[in-house]
Amino acid sequence: MSGEEFESDMEYSDDDCCYEDYYNIEEDCDAEQLDPSKTDPEYFLYECLTVEEVERLLNESVEILSNTLQITPSLAKVLLHAHEWAIQDIIVKYRGDSCKLLVMSKIKPPHPPESVASRHLRHQVCPVCVASQSSDMFSSLACGHLFCKDCWTMHFEVQITQGISTGIGCMAQECEVLAPEDFVLTLLSRPSTRDKYQQFAFRDYVKSHPQLRFCPGPNCQVVIRAKEPWAKRAICNLCRTAFCFRCGTDYHAPTDCATIKKWLTKCADDSETANYISAHTKDVSLSDVNDCPRCHICIEKNGGCNHMQCYNCKHDFCWMCLGDWKSHGSEYYECSRYKENPSIAHESVHAQAREALKKYLHYYERWENHSKSLKLEEQTLQKIKTRINKKVMNASGTWIDWQYLLDAASLLAKCRYTLQYTYPYAYYMEPGPRKELFEYQQAQLEIEIENLSWKIERAETTDRGDLQNQMDIAEKRRATLLKDFLEV
């Protein structure tokens, strides 16, 4: 594309468009209402719950365990939290064995109880504040370690201030006994502190439950529930945040959770990324400005498409490699593939290190380039909305007539997002037939995405049928790659 393809007389807001919206088009475009579990490789069942609904769900489990084992609800919560809410496992483990129940839950039997009369006749010294008080001013957990109530309260308040709730334990040195909820609440008098404790406890209960995951959206209170905790896409029905259910981070298919974590950690190392690239690399793919490889006129990249056309000499070239675009239309899109050096194992250590960095930069530059393209294509989507609005105002059709343009832009972002996350996956793949198949499918997806981006940026002159056909091809390429390589 040239730097003058669209006018730029409008303001762009990040709030107008978000990645999560890109997934809404499937429901609108698929008139055949096919079974998504068979047609969508990213599909899995989940539901969005409110805080009240989650509390009811958790309380049901507490009630079942409490009634079955004949224990207090507070002890039931301790056990459920420690055993990831696996009710049947807890019942099998502890039914009919109260001693085992106490020991395995880290709650030890208390010392033999004293009579009320003898307790009031005695005074004790608190090990923390060294104050002598009557025995009725002391409390202990099941371990029997006695402390005055004021010290217990101060201990709880300090722990809660630090965000700790279910992990609050006995004050005695090396004692691992945890404080049940009823014991803590009995000694907390401030309403604000009690509320904080219960909020933190609720947070811990949700985090320990394998079927529950907090929505990572800003200030969102929704909790996602999925009975099968697969590493697949979940979308909050309130804030529309899309994320990986298994790890809670940005959705990253086809890359698995462990690999994306390793990749992001590597990218955060400045010595390997930004500092080295800015100081040494001659690759221009991460720049927004470059010279045309034919006439050398300066060109600014103001769209997401990597198929560039010089507005001066009309030369078509690839932004990533600066090669002639005609060579990218062949069956194998070589630009995305890294060509391994077969003899590198016999080279010096320095040469191997240089080759490893070269390989990393190849994948990093393409990862980062598609990230930038996504941002630029969000701006393209806003420009399309502005143009449609003008057409509607001029009685040139309705919003429904032009909806296909929005669908195309949304699908493009959806496909490019998947393409971006294919690069960490490819970087860590071992050489072999499976990687060759992956690189082939990655290349096919990339070329179809660039074709779609090219046509969207020229939407005024692109035939509607041609554009919709390109949408279908791009989505099929994406679905095929995910179906073959998305790990669950």
TrEMBL record:
E.C. numbers: 2.3.2.31
Coiled coil: 442-484
Subcellular location(s) of the protein: Nucleus
Keyword Coiled coil on entry: yes
GO biological process assignments: protein ubiquitination
Recorded superkingdom: Eukaryota
SUPFAM superfamilies found in the cross-reference section: RING/U-box
Cellular-component GO terms for this entry: nucleus
RING-type domain residues: 122-339, 295-335
Family stated for the protein in its record: Belongs to the RBR family. Ariadne subfamily.
Entry protein name: RBR-type E3 ubiquitin transferase
Organism, as annotated: Cryptotermes secundus
